[in-house]
Design goal:
The complex is a heterodimer. Chain A contains 7 helices and 14 strands. Chain A is of the alpha/beta class. In chain A, strand 8 and strand 9 form a beta hairpin. In chain A, helix 2 crosses helix 5 and helix 3 packs across helix 4. By secondary structure, chain B is an alpha/beta fold. Helix content of chain B is 26%, strand content 28%. Chain B has a 7-stranded parallel sheet with strand order 7-11-6-1-4-5-12, sandwiched between helices. In chain B, helix 3 crosses helix 4 and helix 5 runs parallel beside helix 8. Classes of the chains: A alpha/beta, B alpha/beta. At the A-B interface, helix 3, helix 4, strand 7, strand 8 and strand 9 of A face helix 3, helix 4, strand 7, strand 9 and strand 10 of B. Strand 14 of chain A pairs parallel with strand 18 of chain B, so a sheet runs across the interface. The complex binds flavin-adenine dinucleotide and adenosine monophosphate (AMP). Adenosine monophosphate binds next to helix 1, strand 4, helix 3, strand 6 and helix 4 of chain A.
């Protein structure tokens, strides 16, 4: 199986409260924050690796996982890390972050998909900087492919994937025939979430994503990484969403610590008047 | 002038309250721009809700009630939304529920429309719509415009109060389903494993009791009595969902459900950025945590540093007492 994984780098999401918005709100300033792979994309890479191997013998690749990012030169670091954890090759589409939006990304990815002909495009359900949650759905429509969003489980079948989707009220299971677009949710990296046909149904993965071993980091430097121009993939690079300004969230006023349960209840009844 | 198409949402044939939030958005855009709005309901059994849908002051209610759309599959729903939107609508909207977030971006792509996800408000100036939306886990709000001829949006349910029926009698039109999307013959609905609950819906509840990793296997045993005493919905942190202490669809946060009840309890939850993103809009926040330094206390109106296994049962007793007083 051949899998394409679009991967974005984002400003450290665990420190998202440290972003700055200069007076006037012209932009969001993330300087000082480390770049990290978008966690959902990191999970998508892990799921792609699981689908292209026998879980018991992960050193032997049983398919191909290609990672692609849209961003400036420095995003190649993110691609190299994905290569170090096991992805087979990488593509960087040269672009500036603020010159992209969901619609443009999906159009450009469509061209890339038609070139690369993967069986699956596997990606995060959302990038946790913009929280836009749309590229996968748009790409599926543009390709005329079936999609399964918010995947918590994926099981490979003959020419198809059985996908458990986390939706309101429970888990909705779809069978999508390949080629298809799948976007992943948090639980996709649980020990029994993803099974390729090669992996025994009794096999259990470690929880979470795998880490790169030192030799792998070295050999990742030799794995192919090519650069493509955005204009080669999308003729029209106009944006369909235009950001005018930004503002910080409203602050919450500081609260108090109560000493005991009776004091808490008393405050809820008499002060907050919510009981 | 902007004409808005609201895509209604159903669960087991019943209209979901998410729809009412999308209607509120549509009403304000229609009013502000001098346009109108209509509602599209797709699903087997959708017709049963036509009376309710006709009461919101819409120009038209479109119903596509067919056996082939008994179960939601995006590729079978999207084309009918697209075909209806092309009847002269400028904005397509649904709530930012799992349904809306799955469906509307696909619809947007088919319409060549830009899509603003999970907006928290809309500003109308003449015919111009500016959307305000949370980004970076709610640590910033962006103001944006969608520049395509048709615009697609999903609205955050907790930020748009549910529309109330106005007593109108909108004409209802039964419509045929549009032919399924190109990929539709390659996707098959297999099953829906529903988590049944008698409790209020998380996004609609006035009181939410959420538990974290600290609850362990005793999640239900400890939190259910508190939720019962308060008539509350139950929520959870990611860690509690990942560990299987609580069903995944109870996850509150940036990438789960966003709630803004009048009273929110965070119990044994540390208060990670991603969790705060889903509950910071609550009116009153109570935190119970044994670690006085836990970040949750920075947003809590009332913090209690205590062992939850002792504090919660005591809280249940005290609340029952206060309620019966
Ligand atoms: C991409 C991504 C998306 C995410 N989305 C979400 C999301 O939507 N929602 C979400 O919640 N998280 C989300 N997270 C996870 C988030 O970063 C935190 O890991 C998670 O919220 C932690 O859950 P917790 O507070 O239950 O666990 P912990 O951080 O482990 O906290 C447990 C707390 O319980 C306290 N405690 C322990 N024992 C007791 C006791 N006996 N009595 C009282 N207190 C006790 C501890 O002091 C601690 O503060 C996301 C993470 C990523 C990477
Ligand atoms: N700049 C980018 N480069 C590569 N992939 C991206 C980029 N932006 C978004 N994506 C992909 O699209 C998914 C959804 O992003 P979004 O719709 O922006 O929330 C992400 O999880 C990525 O897989």
């Amino acid at each position: 199986m051949k899998i394409l994984v679009p991967l974005k780098r984002v400003a450290d999401p665990d420190n998202a409260n440290k972003i700055k918005i200069p007076a006037g709100g012209a932009k969001i300033d993330t300087s000082g924050l480390e770049w990290k792979p978008n966690p959902f994309d990191e999970y998508a890479v892990e799921a792609a690796l699981r689908l292209t191997e026998n879980g018991a013998t992960p050193k032997q690749r049983g398919g191909e996982a290609i990672v692609v990012t849209f961003g400036p030169k420095e995003t190649e670091t993110t691609l190299r890390s994905a290569l170090a954890t096991g992805a087979d090759r990488a593509i960087r589409v040269d672009a500036q972050d603020d010159a992209l939006d969901g619609h443009l990304l999906a159009r450009a990815l469509k061209t890339l998909v038609l070139r690369e002909k993967p069986d699956v495009v596997l990606m995060g359900k959302q990038a946790v900087d913009g929280d836009s949650n749309q590229v996968g759905q748009m790409l599926a429509e543009m390709l005329g492919w079936p999609m399964a969003t918010f995947a918590a489980t994926i099981k490979e079948e003959e020419g198809a994937l059985l996908v458990g989707r986390e939706v309101d009220g429970g888990v909705l299971t779809l069978r999508v025939k390949l080629p298809a677009v799948v976007t992943v949710d948090l639980r996709i990296v649980a020990p029994t979430s993803v099974y390729s046909k090669q992996t025994a149904p009794t096999f259990k993965y470690n929880d979470g994503v795998r880490f790169a071993a030192l030799p792998a980091i070295m050999s990742a430097k030799k794995k192919p990484l090519v650069e493509v121009k955005l204009g080669d993939l999308a003729a029209d690079t106009n944006l369909s969403i235009k950001y005018l300004s930004f503002e910080p969230p409203p602050a919450r006023k500081a609260g108090v610590k109560v000493k005991s349960v009776p004091e808490l209840v008393e405050k809820l009844v008499n002060e907050a008047k919510v009981l | 002038m902007a004409n808005v198409l609201v895509v209604a949402e159903f669960s087991e044939g019943k209209l979901k309250k998410t729809t009412h939030s999308a209607v509120t958005f549509a009403q304000s855009v229609a009013k502000g721009t001098g346009g109108s709005f209509s509602i599209l309901a797709i699903g087997a059994g959708a017709k049963a809700s036509s009376g309710e849908l006709a009461g919101f002051g819409a120009a038209k209610v479109f119903i596509a009630d067919h056996a082939s759309v008994a179960n939601y599959v995006c590729e079978r729903f999207a084309p009918t939304v697209v075909a209806t939107a092309k009847k002269g609508f400028d904005v397509v909207v649904a709530a930012a529920s799992a349904y809306g977030k799955d469906l509307i971006p696909r619809v947007a792509a088919a319409l060549g429309a830009g899509y603003a996800n999970d907006i928290s408000s809309v500003k109308v100036e003449g015919a111009k719509l500016t959307y305000r939306r949370p980004m970076f886990a709610g640590n910033a709000y962006g103001f944006c415009e969608v520049t395509t001829p048709i615009q697609a949006v999903s609205v955050r349910q907790s930020e748009f109060a549910p529309a109330q029926p106005s007593g109108s009698a909108t004409p209802v039109e039964d419509i045929a389903l549009a032919p399924p999307s190109a990929g539709a013959d390659r996707v098959e609905f297999v099953s829906f494993d529903q988590v049944k609950s008698e409790r209020p819906e998380l996004a609609e509840a006035g009181v939410v009791v959420s538990g974290g990793r600290a609850l362990k296997e005793r999640f239900k045993e400890v939190l259910d009595p508190l939720a019962d005493a308060l008539g509350a919905a139950v929520g959870a942190s990611r860690a509690a969902c990942d560990a299987g202490y609580a069903p995944s669809d109870l996850q509150v946060g940036q990438t789960g459900k966003v709630v803004a009840p009048k009273l929110y309890f965070a119990i044994g939850i540390s208060g990670a950025i991603q969790h705060l993103a889903g509950m910071k809009g609550s009116k009153v926040i109570v935190a119970i945590n044994k670690d006085a330094e836990a970040p949750i206390f920075q947003v809590a109106d009332y913090g209690l540093v205590a062992d939850l296994f002792q504090a919660v049962p005591e809280l249940v007793t005290q609340i029952r007492k206060a309620k019966s007083a």
